[in-house]
Amino acid sequence: MFKTGDVVQVKSGGPVMTVVAEGEQVQCLWFAEGSETFQRDTFPAACLEAVEFEDETESEEEDED
Asked: What is the count of structural domains for the chain?
């Protein structure tokens, strides 16, 4: 479902995280701004969703129109 390097988020919200190990349990890493440290935890894959980023090139072209 997810692969190393994918950007995900818990379905109910929270920080955007990077997948560092995959499987039924997905290990994620994120930067905790409040403590300015990296955090790591494991989540069931069913609790995560992929985060989609808008392509900056496309949005710049739309702004020019």
From this structure: 1
